[in-house]
Structure formats: C-alpha cells, structure tokens
UniProtKB/TrEMBL annotation:
<dbReference type="InterPro" id="IPR036390">
    <property type="entry name" value="WH_DNA-bd_sf"/>
</dbReference>
<dbReference type="InterPro" id="IPR050679">
    <property type="entry name" value="Bact_HTH_transcr_reg"/>
</dbReference>
<dbReference type="GO" id="GO:0003677">
    <property type="term" value="F:DNA binding"/>
</dbReference>
<dbReference type="InterPro" id="IPR000524">
    <property type="entry name" value="Tscrpt_reg_HTH_GntR"/>
</dbReference>
<keyword id="KW-0805">Transcription regulation</keyword>
<feature type="domain" description="HTH gntR-type">
    <location>
        <begin position="12"/>
        <end position="80"/>
    </location>
</feature>
<dbReference type="Pfam" id="PF00392">
    <property type="entry name" value="GntR"/>
</dbReference>
<keyword id="KW-0804">Transcription</keyword>
<keyword id="KW-0238">DNA-binding</keyword>
<protein>
    <submittedName>
        <fullName>GntR family transcriptional regulator</fullName>
    </submittedName>
</protein>
<dbReference type="InterPro" id="IPR011663">
    <property type="entry name" value="UTRA"/>
</dbReference>
<dbReference type="Pfam" id="PF07702">
    <property type="entry name" value="UTRA"/>
</dbReference>
<dbReference type="InterPro" id="IPR028978">
    <property type="entry name" value="Chorismate_lyase_/UTRA_dom_sf"/>
</dbReference>
<dbReference type="GO" id="GO:0045892">
    <property type="term" value="P:negative regulation of DNA-templated transcription"/>
</dbReference>
<dbReference type="GO" id="GO:0003700">
    <property type="term" value="F:DNA-binding transcription factor activity"/>
</dbReference>
<dbReference type="InterPro" id="IPR036388">
    <property type="entry name" value="WH-like_DNA-bd_sf"/>
</dbReference>
Amino acid sequence: MSTSEKQTRKPRKSYLEARKRLLEILHSPDFNSGDQIPAERELCELLSLSRMTVRKLLAELVEEGVLERRGNQGTWLLDTPIERPLQPALGIGKILELNGAVPSSQLIYFHVSTASARIARLLHIAEGDEVVMIKRLRLADGQPFCLETSYLPRARVVDLSAEMLEEAGSLYRLLAERYQIQDVYDEGTLRAAAMNEEEHQLLQAKPESPALVYRGVIYDRQRRPIEYLVSVNHPQRVAFRINGGLNEVDAPAV
C-alpha cells in the first residue's frame, strides 16, 4: 500500500467507536471544562484499549482543541475562556408559558445512585452518599428542545419518587411545597459541546450538530446545594438570553 493510500484510508469502525466512547466519558457530568482527565493507563483500562490507541485518540483531541497538554502535569479539557452565570433558576414550565408555548415532558429515568467524587463535591456531600438521578426530555408544543439530568442529595428529598414528580409536573414546585426548599438560584456555565447518540435521537437534532450545554448548581436560600443540573439544549430551538444581569432561557415554539 502506498503512502498516499495510507493517508486517505478511513479509520476503522472499532477506532471510531472507541473515540465516541472516550468523548462520551469526557462530556459526562463527571467532567467540566478545565478539568484534568484520567491518565493514559486509567483510560486504557476504562475503555479496554491499547496504550497506542489511547495516545492516538488523545493526540487527535489535542489537535482539535478539545484537550490540551500541560507538560508533565497531564492532559486537561480545554477551559472555557468566558463563563456567564445564568440566574435566577426558573422552572422550564414557567419559561415556556412566558414564551407562549405549551410545556410537557417525558421521564427517561429516575433512580437512586451513589455520588461520584465530582458530584459529591458539587453538592457538598460525601462521595458515595445517595443521590436521586432524574433524566427528563422537555418539550415545547410537542417538540423536544432540551434533555435535563438532575442530581439531588437523597437526604434533602428522602421520599421523592418518580410518581410524585410526574404528578406534580414541576420539580421546583415539588421542592417548594413538599420540602420547603424555596427561593432557589443557580450558578453555572454554558458551552457548545458534541452530543452523544442518545441525545441526538431524543432531541431529534441533525447528525453531528452540537448542543448548547448548561451545567449548574442550584442553591437554596441558605446557599446549600440542592441540585446539580446538566441541560443539553437543541441548538436550533433554544436561545439563552441575558438581560440586565437576569437571565432566562428562550425556548420558542417550533
């Protein structure tokens, strides 16, 4: 095989799948912009790949600007240069009503798990403590526009169930009425990121299109974290508007 043929040969399917799995890990809630990623040896074990393949994948992502190497300090997710806080926290239902759209949602899953080191740090709980994980597809006039994953300390919502959430319709209303958690506000970041296969399918987005991803911690009036939220927003159906320091999400009817 000639040199030119080697250069134009398409990557193997197994290699592309490995790249996809690595990106899904890096875009998971356990990582944020500016975080250091696991060492090559750990990634090899996590992905069941050879050291050579992992090094090649990391080199590609460095070249593409997803990662950066810092000498002998390791490899890091590229830090977002500008962070704009989005507050106050406002329920999706209320936001859509203000935009003249009819809100609805689909509960993708609801279960109790244990907090990873990152989630524990964000929620000010111990690693391994129970957290309620909720994933919901949010719709405006029947069209999906964002996929939200919430992590709540189980100790703050000890009896919260999927049935209660679906009956109430609004998580924040349920927090206020049942758990007396009111006057919540959020601090978070917004950045463009690649979507995984599930996100593309659920949001009915065009293949390879990026998403607007909001990651934020929701606090109560005593400044205690009550929720870590990851919101993956359809790039053509959601616009984040900032006005006079008060921010809200525009999700126009589509």
